[in-house]
Design a protein that fits this description.
single chain, 297 residues, alpha+beta, Jelly Rolls, Arc Repressor Mutant, subunit A, 2 domains, six-stranded mixed β-sheet
């Protein structure tokens, strides 16, 4: 399985990684959310994951979940999402499947797309669903995700059929048990969400520089007050808070690579001094940069 935390995105925060192959568009990933933040990103594919051990905080669209060991998640196509570590939790592990809908429905003129996948994909209320083992149908959905992950790992002859079958069952469980919500336009197509993606991209391009709230807002041609409102409504942080967390997430990736020392990381991640960098890093992650680097050995 690949590591899901090395996310590369385009200008509008769309993830650029190819998941699986053109012939079988499904990838399987594993990672330790306690090692750092996964930047906000989105992809055309659906995502389904399970926390194998520990816990993590997942935000998708306007929802935030504290996922415990054994919990599962479904993230709809096109939804901005991120992972954050739970400071008080021990090392954790989360496994994900990222798969394109055409793996299940084939073409958009099929009854599978028109009757089942299209209503789910276009539903504003179903941007993300947390699966709890205590709910029978959600427990079955978690089981189907784990089965698909196991099949992808083992790759026995015919695994493609069985993975598609397991994911189809998981999607149908969502459709069958969430029919009351299958109305309305998908929120990710809204103007507000598009503006947010532009501001997130501005931060990605300029986080190494001094960045102000006015500059972030101007990148999307909106006022500072509107930028604050959008970030707090969807990201649940102010633009400046998000900028600081993004800088720390980049610092974590550089620390994992071992390519730079603390002073160099401080400079290339937009912090004014090593002392402020260390103080901010510890406030967000619960440890100093040196302690974090030591935990990776």
């Amino acid at each position: 399985m690949e590591d899901f935390q090395s996310v590369i995105v385009s200008e509008d925060k769309m993830e650029l990684r190819v998941h699986g192959t053109a012939g079988f568009p499904c990838g399987c990933y594993s990672g330790n959310p306690s090692l750092g933040y996964t930047p906000w990103h989105w992809h055309e594919e659906y995502e389904a994951g399970v926390v194998i051990r520990g816990s993590t905080q997942l935000s998708a669209g306007r929802k935030t979940f504290l996922m415990q060991e054994g919990d599962g998640i479904f993230i709809n196509s096109g939804v901005l999402h991120t992972l954050a570590p739970v400071r008080t939790a021990p090392a954790s592990e989360k496994r994900d499947l990222v798969f394109h809908g055409r793996l299940l429905y084939g073409t958009t003129d099929s009854v599978l797309w028109q009757k089942y996948l299209r209503p789910v994909t276009s539903c504003q209320e179903l941007d993300a669903i947390l699966f709890r083992p205590s709910v029978p149908w959600q427990k079955e959905a978690i089981g189907q995700i784990l089965l698909a992950q196991q099949l992808l790992s083992e790759r026995r002859e015919g695994y493609e059929f069985m993975v598609r079958e397991a994911l189809s069952r998981m999607i149908f469980l969502v459709y069958e048990n969430c029919k009351a919500s299958l109305t309305g336009a998908f929120s990710e197509t809204s103007l507000e969400m598009q503006r947010l993606k532009i501001m997130l991209e501005y931060i990605r391009l300029h986080y190494q520089e001094p960045v102000t709230l006015k500059e972030i807002a101007s990148s999307a041609n909106i006022c500072e007050r509107e930028a604050l409102r959008s970030f707090r409504k969807i990201i649940r942080q102010s633009p400046v808070q998000y900028l600081i967390h993004y800088r720390i997430s980049r610092a974590c990736l550089i620390l994992k690579s071992g390519e730079k020392n603390i002073t160099e990381i401080c400079s290339c991640c937009g912090f004014s001094s090593p002392s402020y960098f260390t103080k901010t890093f510890k406030k967000i992650t619960g440890c100093t940069p040196r302690e974090y680097a030591g935990s990776l050995l």
